[in-house]
Write the structure tokens for this entry.
Amino acid sequence: MKKNLWRFILLMVLLGLGFWGLKIGYQSYRMQQAGHPVSFFRAKNKVPIHKPRGKTFRPKKIVVKPPRLTQQTRQFKRLLSPIVGKNRFVGTLLIVKNGKPVYNQGYGYANYQQKGLNTANSEYQILSMQKSMTAMLIMQQVQAGNLRLTDHLAEFYPAITGASQITIRSMLNMQTGLRIKQLSKQVLSSQGVADYAARHVQFVAAKNNQWSYQPINYTLLAGILQKITGQTYYHIFTHHIITPLKLHNTGFVMQADRALRLSTPYLNQPITDNSINYLHAYHELAASQHNELATGNVYMSTGDFYKVTQAILQARFLTAQNTAILHEASGICQYGGGLYSKSPTSYWSHGVGYGEESGVMISRDGQNAVVMLSNYHLKKSALKKQCAQIYQNLMQGMY
């Protein structure tokens, strides 16, 4: 009798484990069919297993003890103190000279509640600085002969008003009359985000061919990438950028649970308060994380960001000729392929949102750069000026 009872209990346990395995497998299948970045499968419109709730990033790997500084690093820190010292900057600052990192240090807290410090390997949502990478992926399709810069948006989205007047080139350079008033409040897959954008985008004819920073251009470019390749944007980004460059501190914010060092973003409330007090962690909605498709939902460390940007500028992804064509700037802000032409010798890029801010200044040969990634955005942010000043000092030989 006892033997039969134990057999029955064992059978129930095995059946329970089998049911649990089927459930997990089904959820994975649903994620795959929805084009979730975990799977890179073909996308449908909605991802019903996700809930659009706010989410605060928290680093899993907490560093509470500041690293020991070398003599060179201490000297750098002293020189930089008037610019980023004394609570003037929260995040990680990387300085590259002649192709070599000479300073990469964290400032402030990655998570104040846990007393975790920002470090050289801390990860941040890079926001709009992702657009230069999306632009490069588009140019790869041009180089492969699958797309032309003179192609019109109407070839991919004929239902969009004014699409026959908009070229791929004008979208890359933010010179279209495309606008969108409200993004989806639901969590959508990569295909769903692009489809939603196509259905809700508006065309202002009077603004066409004039520069205006409208991320909707890059959302639709992601949709075009997906149409051409039959793959999700996340698959393309992973296999064309993350894998070949062996990036270890890069991922998508929807996969924040996989990140080890993703810093918690902070935003003061009220916004008029311009002190650094860490009182309010920012909760980014899940829908927003997906809506930033191709325009700002990648997280990176400063080192990984520099590695990608240097590779783009040094023509590791494209031919030298196509790299130059990609970054041909136009408009009042001299924007081309995700980068601003700061001067004849350098580029600039910037991103802000969800309690984070990012900035880079880099020489056109990719050899000298200042990368600043911050998890604390203030209304009166000084990051742009700080980045420009440090880069100027670098080029003048002060570091």
